[in-house]
Amino acid sequence: MSEATAPIRRGARLTRSARRAQLLIAARDVFAAQGYHAAAMDDIAEKAGVSKPVLYQHFPGKLELYRALLTTYADDLVGRVEQAIRGTTENQERVHAAVSAYFDFVASDGHAYRLVFESDLRGEPEAAAVVDGALTRCIDAVAVAVTADAGLDAPRARLLAVGLVGLSQVTARYWLDSDQVVPRDEAVALMSGLAWRGLAGFPLIHL
Known about the structure:
Layout: H1 16-34, H2 41-48, H3 52-58, H4 62-86, H5 91-108, H6 110-117, H7 125-147, H8 154-177, H9 184-199
Helix pairs in contact: 1-2, 1-4, 1-6, 4-5, 4-7, 5-6, 5-7, 5-8, 5-9, 7-8, 8-9
């Protein structure tokens, strides 16, 4: 469970890290409901049940608060993908696990997915850098683990990794927004099967 999703009991005396988690949860809900530009620090403090001075003790401004929240969720996504890749040495299973990680991310908390991929602050350079950095780290993990042993050079291996990450991201978002008509496990199997049939065309190179 990530810092931004850990349950916090209101009214309790909290450690600094627990208070920060509480504030991030409140910020998540307010940003998701109102968007970045419409949300106010007053709204977030009220949602968290704290005074504005307490909120400002942890985050000097709305942008810093949003960036902390975005970083938490972006790191969560990267961690899911990296853990999925490390979980097996079989490439077909790695493809399935990588696709599954994206579906798990969008299904686990729609607020997280929308904050990362649909924020009205994506044009802000520092926020965009957080998201782009997370996608780059996902691509790096896939490029090394899934395609390196196919004997491809780095640019071609990376291009395939970009394709797999892009397929996973777009289809997982579509699946969530289409009310999950296709059951999650079936959707993952369909998309990982599509991806694997393409990647399997590259012969393994045993060094």
